[in-house]
Amino acid sequence: MTSVQIKICGVTNIRDARSCAASGADMIGLNFYPRSPRHIEPKVARQIVEAIPRSVETVGVFVDATADEIRSIANAAGIGSVQLHGDFSPETCRQLARELRVIRAFRTDPRFQPKETALFSECDILLDAHHPDLRGGTGLTCDWPAARATRPFARFLILSGGLNAQNVGEAIAAVTPHAVDICSSVESAPGAKDYRAIKNFVAAVRMAGRSVTASS
Fold first, then answer.
1. Does domain 5-215 have CATH number 3.20.20.70?
2. Which of the four pLDDT bands, split at 50, 70 and 90, describes residue 132?
3. Which of 86, 141, 172, 177 is deepest in the core (most CB within 10 A)?
């Protein structure tokens, strides 16, 4: 198994973005959902994109936006990857995937069926915990058995939901995702990152990744 990638979501400013990059994050998430406490404007997002190394991928997070809105904001912010939460059809995702890297997000609620993710073959898949009101950043734990069952259907699987430095090793061993995503567990407040927590999380992921590789 190759190294597990790390995505830190809900970045709202240049200082935090640079800290994530310096700590070893492979991706950072920039939230364009207006109802989120971590919401930022495209102008701010572009400043963040231009302030960090190109080796760190920037991902725009959208909830129930139209394809035209997504294209417009992605262009204004200078991002090439988008993470989609809500009602997005396979066809809409297929169209967007011609221009952007598309990460289709699913919540592991009782109705979730792992094989449904196969309908989004042009997309990478992110699995998050279910919350009746919030879309991401809930701190709730994803259903790991459901995530593991999704692994055969996803070309690239990102595990999210309730991860932290204490449980991410167990999560990686249980699910074997390609990447892990964290938000609220590395914050001092919504949208404000805790640098020590970030470093601890990155170290835990790297250690878990080496353990999985050694045992495979």
1. yes
2. low
3. 177
Supply the pTM of this predicted model: 0.93
| Cα 46 from Cα 211, distance rounded (Å) | 37
Q: What phi and psi, each to the nearest 5 degrees, are found at residue 189?
A: -165, 160
Q: What pLDDT, on the 0 to 100 scale, is given for residue 138? A: 55
Domain locations along the chain: 5-215
SS3 of residue 136 by DSSP: coil
Please spell the DSSP secondary structure of 190-215, one letter per residue: TTEE-HHHHHHHHHHHHHHHHHHHHH
In the beta sheet, which residues pair with residue 192?
189
Q: What residue type is assigned to position 101 of the chain?
A: R
Q: How many residues does the chain have?
A: 216
171: amino acid identity, one letter: A
DSSP state of 55: T
Q: Given the structure tokens 């259907």, which residue do they identify?
A: 153
pLDDT at res. 140 = 80
Contacts of 164 (CB under 8 A, 6+ apart): 182, 185, 197, 201
What average pLDDT does range 130-134 have in this prediction? 55
Which of 60-69, 192-201, 206-215 has the least mean pLDDT?
Answer: 206-215
Catalytic residues: 9, 128
